[in-house]
Task: structure prediction
Amino acid sequence: MEQRVRVEVMEAATLFAASQARVGTARTAIAAAEESLRITRDRYEAGLETITSRLRTETALTEARLRLLIAGHSVRIARLNHEADLGKLGPDLEVLQ
Result:
């Protein structure tokens, strides 16, 4: 039983770390999408891009922001699971605030 608990704690910690990495990746994707949108917007205003291209880059930015929200949610869930596996889950837990 003790070994099983240790494995669950390690698994929860690994999932928490992976979730945090996804947040970093999502932030990088947002920065890239924002720059792409800036370039496309400038080109559109100069008459060098179509509205379809501009909308496509705006959609990509929205999707990147959505991925960040999902990644943040995954971090909170992974943290809750990790704290629960450690036996530290309680109403005063920071992640619940």
Summary: Helices lie at 2-45, 51-86.
